[in-house]
Amino acid sequence: MNASSPTTIDVTLGERSYPVWIGRGLLGDSTRWRARLRGRHALVVSNTTVAPLYLERVAQGLAGLAWASFQLDDGEAHKSFANVERVLEALAKLGATRDACVIALGGGVVGDLAGFSAACWMRGIDFIQMPTTLLAMVDSSVGGKTGVNLPAGKNLVGAFHQPRAVVADIDTLATLPDREYRAGLAEVVKGAAIGDEPFFAWLEAHADALAARDEAAVIEAIARKVAYKAGVVARDETEQGERALLNLGHTFGHALETAGRYTTLLHGEGVAVGMLLAARLSERLDMSAAADTARLQRLLVRIGLPVAIPPGMDAEQLLALMRLDKKNTAGTLRLILWCGIGKAEIVAGVNENDVLAVLREATA
Ligand SMILES: NC(=O)c1ccc[n+]([C@@H]2O[C@H](COP(=O)([O-])OP(=O)(O)OC[C@H]3O[C@@H](n4cnc5c(N)ncnc54)[C@H](O)[C@@H]3O)[C@@H](O)[C@H]2O)c1
Ligand SMILES: O=C(O)C(=O)C[C@@H](O)[C@H](O)[C@H](O)COP(=O)(O)O
Ligand SMILES: [Zn+2]
């Protein structure tokens, strides 16, 4: 495959739409993405790991523009309000006007923070997502959720702000560590588990090819997950209903990530464990069968994802963190529960004692 034939999926939001390009050589071949820039200012936001690897490829496409780059320190702990302020200061220093564009070059941390900064600067300017992790390609770069963490919890501050384009250059995956790659697969499994039974079966059949990073399998997995998510986002851009299903495993997962101070579990790993906890809770509430939970666990294990709560975490502490989840209403837990492969439901007023029982069993 070359840069002239990417797989393209359009995310359509009423009258608007933007492309997600998936393929090889896309960063260095700027013909497509450069045409999405409207003004003469661009700020590339990246981090200290990704910029040395890939900034040069993007820089070539920015020739002739007034542009600068800003590098975050690496890690989830840097998805912070303080860094948003630093990005905004970099935009001010660049003299960025309303037609400026922020380019997010990196994983989901960079994408969420850069996108939120773009949403804030002059009440909203363009941004382009250039995801360089599998997780960012299949999930965070698509759909317009942007934001940062607070010490109290994940993603507590943010905005819906859609990108102008998503440039998923799979060449960048060559340098992605295996653990990060596997974490990205968790969000692929999630999409299939929520709403696409045939895709789940395909993942089971291609688990070995995916673990070996077979190129055709990787591109198909990215494209199928992005197409699934694009459909959900098109129907419910701002999470008034159906979109909340994309949060399967996340109320548990975010609590696990936060409890581990963002160093114990990666986001995708938290989602993997979180999905299993959600599955067990669903079984307890007679919404799903043990056989489905076992099938989900088998696939996650084959991919090499964790399926247990890390040692030292406490059930009560996790429940307290879950109480701050954004989906909750009227002071009660509102969770995404699982009804077996390919089906999930939003359930309000979940009894905390049931959640605690599942957490206690998993932390015992
Ligand atoms: N907005 C959304 O819809 C959405 C969806 C899913 C996840 N998220 C968020 O995304 C974040 C997780 O994203 P992530 O898993 O990409 O983590 P990340 O951004 O921390 O990237 C993972 C690691 O890989 C490194 N890296 C990135 N690209 C690389 C490359 N090509 N080669 C080598 N190293 C590379 C990074 O420097 C980092 O160390 C979380 O904050 C999560 O909340 C958001
Ligand atoms: O796009 C969505 O909607 C998602 O929920 C995707 C999730 O995988 C992602 O982790 C998202 O950041 C979670 O958002 P939050 O609303 O729970 O903060
Ligand atoms: Zn997620």
Automatic annotation (TrEMBL):
Question: Per the record, what are the reactions this protein catalyses?
Answer: 7-phospho-2-dehydro-3-deoxy-D-arabino-heptonate = 3-dehydroquinate + phosphate
**InterPro entries annotated for this entry?**
Dehydroquinate_synthase (IPR050071), DHQ_synth_AroB (IPR016037), DHQ_synth_fam (IPR030963), DHQS/DOIS_N (IPR030960), DHQS_C (IPR056179)
- State the superkingdom: Bacteria
Residue spans crossing the bilayer: none
Spell out the SUPFAM superfamilies in the cross-references: Dehydroquinate synthase-like
This protein's pathway reads: Metabolic intermediate biosynthesis; chorismate biosynthesis; chorismate from D-erythrose 4-phosphate and phosphoenolpyruvate: step 2/7
Could you tell me the keywords of this UniProt record?
Amino-acid biosynthesis, Aromatic amino acid biosynthesis, Cobalt, Cytoplasm, Lyase, Metal-binding, NAD, Nucleotide-binding, Zinc
Sites where the protein binds NAD(+): 74-79, 108-112, 132-133, 145, 154, 172-175
Q: A single Gene Ontology molecular function, please? A: 3-dehydroquinate synthase activity
User: Any idea where this protein resides?
Assistant: Cytoplasm
Co-factor requirement: NAD(+); Co(2+); Zn(2+)
Give residue ranges for domain 3-dehydroquinate synthase N-terminal: 70-182
EC number(s) on record? Answer: 4.2.3.4
Record-annotated residues binding Zn(2+)?
A: E187, H250, H267
The 3-dehydroquinate synthase C-terminal domain sits at 184-328
Q: So what does this one do? A: Catalyzes the conversion of 3-deoxy-D-arabino-heptulosonate 7-phosphate (DAHP) to dehydroquinate (DHQ).
User: So what family is this one in?
Assistant: Belongs to the sugar phosphate cyclases superfamily. Dehydroquinate synthase family.
In its UniProt entry, what is this protein called?
3-dehydroquinate synthase
Q: Could you tell me the gene encoding this protein? A: aroB
